Amino acid sequence: MEKIYKKLKPLKVSHLDGxxxxxxxxxxxxxxxxxxxxxxxxLEANDRKxxxxxxxxxxxxxx
Length: 63
Description:
This protein is of the alpha+beta class. Helices cover 35% and strands 33% of the residues. The chain has one domain: 2-Layer Sandwich (TATA-Binding Protein), CATH 3.30.310.50. It has helices at residues 2-8, 48-62, and strands at residues 12-14, 19-22, 26-32, 39-45. The mean pLDDT is 92.
């Protein structure tokens, strides 16, 4: 998480229900699953193009 924070420099970070990183045109939340051994990722953006780009970038960082 610290690497993501330092590299992406979010406008706001919240630690409610995982960790949520907020930016000007998108946000994402990372949290461990309560029922499976995996990390859940939720991402929303102002438009589909930004969402797809940020999704690819984020998945590269957390794999």
